[in-house]
Amino acid sequence: MAKKVVVAYSGGLDTSYTVMYLAKEKGYEVHAACANTGGFSAEQLKTNEENAYKLGATKYVTLDVTQEYYAKSLKYMIFGNVLRNNCYPISVSSERIFQAIAIARYAKEIGADAIAHGSTGAGNDQIRFDMTFLVMAPGVEIITLTRDKSLTRKEEVDYLNAHGYFADFTKLKYSYNVGIWGTSICGGELLDPTQGLPEEAYLKHVTAQEPTSELKIKFEKGEIVEVNGVHYDDKIAAIQKIEEIGASYAIGRDCNVGDTIIGIKGRVGFEAAAPKLIIEAHRLLEKSTLSKWQQYWKDQVANWYGMFLHESQYLEPVMPDIEAMLTSSQRNVNGTAILQLRPYGFQTVGVDSDDDLTKSKLGEYGEMQRGWTAEEAKGFIKVSSTPLRVYYGAHPDEER
Question: In the prediction, which pLDDT does 165 show?
């Protein structure tokens, strides 16, 4: 019997070559599996299925893990206000982990002998796929033709054409990865560190009819429940609505320079209206509803959570522990955050929350104190200064 191989199939050049080569040259029973974390439209998935069979696949499946991706990753990135380098929503990094988990699960389900993916040897994705497969599907062979054969795009296209498969695999100036948590953009001007991306590099442009508009996002225990007064049980639908609103103002554009897992630095552009708006709205609400030390420690562990996601350490046993802490921190993050949108940007306006700690009966900052007297304030200040008075009393000549 022919060996079974599951190909992590996106419909792109590398995975198309992989499907055909393994079917025709190696005689594998090829199962082309597209793991969808929210980045594929229904039309794209239908095209993927048709093309997979043209390439020689025995079977094609779409593994829809969008809701799982939210429940096991996006939710915690919102809880943690996770932005890599305080800039980049961890979109592709986290998507790849859940795509790899879905592929490994499917490979075990059908008793596959091997798993194949199209990553090169110069990027992060090879690590995310390989590490996940090694842990989740131990003993299953990992095949990476593009990496192992050092294939060029021309070699792959020529092979497909020679076997009667023709598609538009033109090498574009920019490459895009579109997902529920943002679109990454590589290539073009980004290869020159002195340049940013021009307007035409972005997929979404200003289409809003009004010069400004108000966006209200309501959270319950840190999760989105309403967008502009409309209730959402489906969190993915809520994210998509916020993306639609924010993208009409071309909000969320930026470039990030980061450290790759393999040790080199990489530069990526992105447009991510929903992540930027959601995270800043959530952060604004937290400022009013969390204590000082809740915010401090949550920020520390959330930073590690984001790094571990990026570094392909989602399966590290500490991750559920961090998620538990992040979840606990959200018990009073309830209320509505109000943002003002404008072309290419936005500003935070305020919050409306029953858990707002600024609504204190003890006083208003800079206005009036009710929980202590003037003499008590002076005593507090004097006691607080004690360590400094001790130090500078012992070192009177030391200057700052």
Answer: 95
What CA dihedral angle connects 37, 42, 47 and 48, to 10 degrees? 20
The H or E element spanning position 18 is helix 13-24
Mean pLDDT of 365-383: 91
Determine contact, residues 55/23, Cβ cutoff 8 Å.
yes
Element (H, E) at 34: strand 29-36
90-112 as b/e: b if 16+ CB within 10 A: bbbbbbbbbbbbbbbebbbeeeb
SS3 109: helix
**Which backbone phi and psi does 184 adopt, to 5 degrees?**
-95, 150
Phi, psi of 146, rounded to the nearest 5 degrees: -60, -40
Model pTM above 0.85: yes
Partners of 347 in the β-ladder: 340
As beta bridge partners, residue 4 has 29
Structure tokens at 262: 């393999």
Classify the phi-psi angles of 38: left when phi > 0, otherwise alpha if psi is within -120 to 50, otherwise beta.
left
Q: Hunting for tokens 């204190």 — which residue is that?
A: 360
Which of 288, 316, 319, 287 has its CA nearest to residue 301?
319
Enumerate the β-bridge partners of residue 6: 31, 115
Task: Write out the two tokens for 223.
Answer: 């999760």
Closest C-alpha to 251, from 178, 182, 350: 182
Encode pLDDT of 103-156 as tens digits. 999 999 999 999 999 999 888 999 999 999 999 999 999 999 999 999 999 999
The pair of three-digit structure tokens given for residue 9, joined into one six-digit string: 């199939």
User: Phi and psi dihedrals of 151, rounded to 5?
Assistant: -75, 145
Alpha-carbon span 274 to 167, nearest angstrom:
32
Task: Say if residues 312 and 261 touch (Cβ distance below 8 Å).
Answer: yes
Question: pLDDT tens, 180-227?
Answer: 999 999 999 999 999 999 999 999 999 999 999 999 999 999 999 999
Nearest to 118 by CA among 232, 18, 243: 18
